[in-house]
Design a protein that fits this description.
The chain is globular, with a radius of gyration of 20 Å. A hairpin with an 8-residue loop joins β4 and β5. The two termini are 23 Å apart. It has three helices and 26 strands. The chain has 403 residues and is mainly beta. The strands form seven sheets. It has a five-stranded mixed beta sheet, with no helix packed on it. The protein has a single domain (5-384), classed as Tachylectin-2, Chain A, CATH 2.115.10.
């Protein structure tokens, strides 16, 4: 059972979105703001209230809204391309942001764009391979942007005590090993996928489970959590694997309809264990059901937070409704315990993607504002529980590592 409603305190925090750029369109000015709600994390040893955040690939618009809402009628010919996206400012790509929560106010301390060994910043273009064909990208003039070896759709982050980061990417899917200055040192990809990134200005290592390459389009790695001893990294696919290939070696009926959770060596990316996360029935996401039909294809995982040794909080959602579950990584098929449902807290915004611990009883939640493209603002909430959320005794400094 979740914690009783009257024992939990939810506080909306004060934050002002940072404007990155403005684009003139026939229907007015398109404002692009800092996107940082895809993932949150705490670094062991950082001052109280300091967290790291990451946004996704960068500002992008589907063709329909670009034409209908922004008057970019010259893009109408692209309507027939399934998955096509318009990137109004391709130069705005994945970046880390260091934040401070002090009282009820959130401020940005620094922004750290991801870059490769040459100093070139990462962008949000698909990497060579399937996504480039299935999700073609165009600039605001309608020119094709193609793929890029420094492309990434970043969705989650873990910050290590040595100053480095691990960043989850949906495209590969892959995990980026990032230095303290934002330089991508290594990219861990599913075994057998290394050849697609030949020539990249970072090391490409095919160490991840080969099954991960069969993720659904735009449903790659979405959640990362670091074990308290920082030796293990837990990573979760956003959704179940795509339909099996005819020649796929996959006879595990138990895995169908479950999200894959892999535990990896945090230094090398080598797989250690696999778990299966079961989804709730889609109709149990009440606010989404009230808004229209929902199905299994709408379910997704958006974040994970370590709350002790082999203990995680997992954010499961559709859009309007988000649920936080506690899981213990003791069996392959995981058992869930509900901690919080936003159906009980209608003031908590939709599209939650970032979650981390501020203390053993306080969570920081954040939505994904999609870089403000649709006028959406970033919103932070602090959720305070009456009891500790997990067993923190194994963490060296008494705190669990954020996810």
């Amino acid at each position: 059972m979740p914690t009783p409603h009257d024992a939990v305190t939810v506080t909306r925090l004060i934050w002002t979105d940072h404007v990155l750029d403005e684009v003139e369109t026939p229907h007015g000015r398109l404002r692009i703001t800092l996107g940082l709600g895809s993932g949150l994390t705490r670094r062991a040893g950082d001052p109280a209230g300091v967290v790291w955040a990451i946004g996704d690939r960068g500002p992008n618009i589907k063709v329909g809204p670009a034409v209908d809402d922004h008057g970019l009628t010259h893009l109408a010919a692209l309507r027939g391309l399934d998955g096509a996206k318009i990137m109004p400012r391709p130069g705005i790509g994945p970046m880390l942001a260091q934040l401070r929560v002090e009282g009820d106010v959130v401020t940005c301390l620094q922004i750290l764009p991801l870059r490769d060994a040459t100093g070139a910043t990462f962008n949000g273009l698909p990497i060579p391979g399937g996504d480039a064909a299935m999700e073609p990208t165009f600039d605001i003039s309608g020119a094709a942007l193609g793929d890029h070896l420094a492309g990434a759709d970043t969705e989650a982050v873990a910050a290590l005590a040595d100053g480095t980061f691990r960043v989850a990417d949906e495209y590969g899917p892959s995990i980026l090993k990032v230095g303290p200055d934002g330089a991508v040192l290594e990219r861990w990809v599913p075994a057998g996928q290394e050849t697609a990134l030949v020539g990249a200005a970072y090391a490409v290592i095919g160490v991840l489970p080969a099954q991960a390459a069969r993720r659904q389009l735009n449903r790659g790695f979405e959640a990362l959590a670091l074990s308290p001893d920082e030796r293990r990294l837990h990573v979760i696919l956003q959704s179940p694997l795509a339909a099996q290939d005819e020649d796929a070696d996959e006879s595990d009926a138990d895995a169908v309809g479950h999200a894959r959770l892999w535990t990896l060596n945090a230094e090398t990316g080598a797989p250690i264990a696999e778990h299966l996360y079961p989804f709730d029935p889609p109709e149990s996401f009440r606010r989404d059901l009230e808004a229209g039909p929902v199905g299994p294809e709408d379910l997704k995982i958006s974040e994970a937070v370590s709350i002790g040794d082999n203990q995680l909080l997992v954010l499961e959602r559709i859009s309007r409704t988000s649920k936080l579950y506690r899981v213990a990584l003791t069996e392959r098929l995981l058992t869930k315990t509900l901690v919080l449902s936003t159906d009980d807290w209608p003031r908590i915004d939709a599209d939650l993607e970032g979650v981390t611990l501020l203390s053993d009883r306080d969570l920081l939640l954040c939505n994904d504002n999609d870089f403000g493209i649709e006028g959406r603002e970033t919103v932070f909430f602090r959720v305070t529980f009456p009891e500790p959320l997990g067993d923190m005794t194994s963490a060296a400094d008494g705190r669990a590592s954020g996810g």
